[in-house]
Amino acid sequence: MKKIVQIVFVFLLITSCSEESDDTTTQANITFNFTHNWDGTPVSNANFNSIQYTNANGEQLSITKLRYLISKFTFQKSNGEKIILDGYNLVDVSNGTDLSFTPTVSIPTGNYNYVYFTFGFDNDANYNGNYPDLNSASWSVPSMLGGGYHFMQLEGKFIDNTATETGYAYHAIRAVDNSKTPQEFQDTFFEVDLGAVTITNNTTFNIEMNIAEWFKNPNTWDLNVLNNMLMPNFNAQIMMFENGQNVFSLKTVTP
After folding, report:
1. For the Copper-binding protein MbnP-like domain, which residue ranges apply (predicted)?
2. What is the pLDDT of residues 116-152, one digit of tens each?
């Protein structure tokens, strides 16, 4: 009888320790760093305002402004469970600000088979007035174009087909067709898949944007034709959406 009692006690002790272990999950802080290049050549605001890049259509150009919005950072497990980190970040390369973003919420360590973020806002978030900081940053889209917010502002100058230095404004928003009543919209936000990742400690994702990709794949961009007034241009917005699929890549993941 004494032996039976000892065995039961050991079993209860093991069970108790196991339950305590299950209840204790290590948390990790996540940081996203964004760097930029032109087909491999690093780009920062120190390189702005000088015509030194050539796009896929052969036009020489400069960059004078680059800002873009990222949101909905998501970690998905193999069973489909998702952890969505609150917050968004307006990456402002022009001023060299917010090139790094650390969500306020940590996540459990472990294996995640799908990590991604959203370029722009999805439709649940893309409403005027929701974000005072974006309003003050002149990031809103006019109501006549459906409201909401920009996804990107890329501006500069290029040498046109008359050898004249001409401005361009490559602004990405949700596509709207004002030729139809009521207005017709098409989603142009997209998810950037960073692949499978194992989180064992605080982790930094180093992400690159190849700016040249906005002008070349799958649509070779002709700045002589598409340089300004692109926000109300439904087809141009769809082309931007298509070209954006190849813009971002994961460079490294560091603990």
Report:
1. 28-224
2. 999 999 999 999 888 999 999 999 999 999 999 999 9
